Every structure is written in structure tokens, then in C-alpha cells.
Amino acid sequence: MAKLHLRPVQFADTPIGRDGEVARLAGGMQWFAAYEVIEGGARRTVPIAEFARTLCANDERAAELHTIITAPRAPLTLGERTLRFDQPLVAGILNVTPDSFSDKGPSDDPVAAGVAMASAGAALIDVGGESTRPGAELVWEEDEKKRVEPVIRGLARAGTLVSVDTRKAMVMEAGLAAGAAIVNDVAALLWDDRALEVVAKAGCPVVLMHSPDPAKGPHGGSGYGDVLTEVYDWLDARIAAAVAGGVDRARIIVDPGIGFGKSLQDNLSLLNGLAMFHGLGCPVLLGASRKRMIGALSNEAPADQRLGGSIALALKGAEAGVQLLRVHDVPETVQALKVWRGMRDQALVGR
């Protein structure tokens, strides 16, 4: 029997005057009026007003997915800090690598750079010590640890919420010990045999990102039949494996892995279908900032000239109800989201 997937579509500015016609997306700031129902390669649209009568009454999975998609995402309490997911938050990217695809190397004072991003509105600073660009060389775990540990410690002492961006268990342990509150793993805990154990033992939140063959590297793969449903199902399986390994499901965040082992067409399909990932029941992180796809769509603009495209993708994520936006350009993205939020607020009080 073909597996059923639901993608929220037909987004509405406001639920006012539309009782029974729209549903709230993941307890956030978006409402939608219909589902695209994907089953066995076939797609059809079912309005919310007819959903309970035409689908939920006869399909237990549809009813369960609807409940999950519309339920609020629980906040994460991290020491004295709390991440609330009722509106999109910004995670600032802080690379302490000499070979990142997106910039010219680490800042002379990465702690100050991270604090500046937090002051500009980033709810979280994501610190990474290994480039994941195509063709990047593997960094020895001791070297990666030496890169990120002092930066994380300095940021944590400054009162900044930090995540450690790594696929290596040793670096996860060092980052958490230095004050990181979250692990962000591009390999979804599959690259290092000890990674799942480390995260489960720490009880910390973890970001599980999709890539086609994370045990080998983030940029493998041989293509997809239906990229949206395949990435969704893969993340669903990784959530189940993490929970079976002792990770609290309420502390899992998912990332569809834009740019990792995916063609331009794959990335665009995922971005257009982002709202479907709310069916996994976890907060969704979107990392599309300065990605190569922006250059591919804009006369091969180099990475440091992709601000406009990055803002466009961040707002696309916000429109799809994404809870975390991982970006390089924090002040500009925060400003864009404030304007977007102003429009959302106005829609709730009147036209």
C-alpha cells in the first residue's frame, strides 16, 4: 500500500472569518486552506473544509498527520534560555574554518563576531570547524576540536546560545562541555558510530540533516524519484532511529539538507514543498544561505554576492512555517523577518 503524505498548501493571510476553512500550521504564524495529498505518485488537493469528511474519516494516517501538522512545537528550555517555535528564529553561522565555501575564512575575533550576531537578533550561533563544501578535505577531529572549543566557550561565557556543527562524536563532546546547548549534525548521527550515544547521553537537542549517503560524505547520491517524499521518509526513519537510541523526540530538529547531494531541480522542489516536513512533528531548520543554487539562478554570483537570494529563501522558509533559519547575514535577515512579521500581525487585526 502506498504511503500517504500531506503537504499544506493555499496559505492564508488570516484565519479571521474563515472558521473551518483554514488550519494553523505547527502552532505558528501561518494558516493554510488545503492539503496536497500525495499517494502512490498521484497528487490531489483536498480543502480543509472537506478534509475531515473526505479523508480523515477513512484514513487513520491522514488524521494523525493532520494532528501533527497543526500541533504547536514545544519550546526548548536550554539552561536559562528558551527557544520558542511559534515564529521563525535566526541561527547565525559562525565558521572557524579556513576553507568555508561562503566566506574568506574565520574572523580575527570569532567570539566577538558571534556576540555581534546575537546582538543583531540571532537566537542561536552555530559554530563549525569543518567545511562541508563539495571537495573539502576531512579535518582531523583534534584539529576541529581545537578550532571550535575556545570559540564556543567564549560565546557561552558571554551568555550566547550556541550549537556545535559537527559530525564527530569527540567534537560533539568537547563542544557540549564548552557550553554548546545543541548538536547540529549534517550526517544525522550516521557518520560517527558514537554520535548517537553522545547525544542521547547528553540529553541535548540535535539537528538531523538529510544527505544521500552521510556515512561516506554529505555530497554523494545518484538522484531521486520524488525528492520531496524520499527526503521526508529518510528523515522520518532517522527520527525513529534516534528515538530508539535514547534521544527525546521533543528535542529533535530536522533539516532537509538543501544543497547536499541534490541538483538545482531537487533543491527547488524541496523549497516549494517545505511545509510537508511539518508532518514529522519536529521543528524544521532551513539552511539555504549563500548556497550554490542562488548562484545558479543569478548569473553565477559568487558566494559573497548572494545576499538577495539568501533573503528570498529565508522568507520562503518563513512562509512555509520553518522555525529556524540558518544564515550568514544575520542583521539583514532579521530585518526582513521583522517586516514580514509586521505584515502578518496586521493581517490578524484588520486589512
Task: Describe the structure in your own words.
With about 350 residues, this protein is α/β, with parallel strands linked by helices. It folds into 2 domains: about 5-70, no CATH class; about 75-345, TIM Barrel. The protein is about 35% helix and about 20% strand. The protein has helices at about 50-55, 60-70, 110-120, 140-155, 170-180, 195-200, 225-245, 265-270, 290-295, 305-320, 330-350, and strands at about 5-10, 25, 30-40, 40-45, 75-80, 80-85, 90-95, 125-130, 160-165, 180-185, 205-210, 250-255, 285, 325. The strands form 3 sheets. The protein has an 8-stranded parallel β-sheet. Strands 1, 2, 3 and 4 form a 4-stranded antiparallel β-sheet that branches. A two-stranded antiparallel sheet has the order 5-6. β3 (about 30-40) and β4 form a beta hairpin. The relative contact order is 0.12. The model has no long low-confidence stretch (mean pLDDT about 95).
Explain briefly what this protein structure is:
Helices cover 37% and strands 19% of the residues.
Kindly report the oligomeric state of this protein: single chain
CATH topology group of the largest domain: TIM Barrel
Strand content: 15-25%
On the 0-100 scale, what is the average pLDDT?
A: 93
Secondary structure topology:
Blueprint: E1 4-12, E2 23-24, E3 31-39, E4 42-47, H1 48-56, H2 60-70, E5 76-78, E6 81-83, E7 89-95, H3 110-119, E8 124-128, H4 141-157, E9 162-165, H5 169-178, E10 182-185, H6 195-202, E11 206-209, H7 227-244, E12 252-255, H8 264-272, E13 285-286, H9 292-296, H10 307-319, E14 324-327, H11 330-349
Parallel strand pairs: 7-8, 7-14, 8-9, 9-10, 10-11, 11-12, 13-14
Antiparallel strand pairs: 1-3, 2-3, 3-4, 5-6
Helix pairs in contact: 3-4, 4-5, 5-6, 10-11
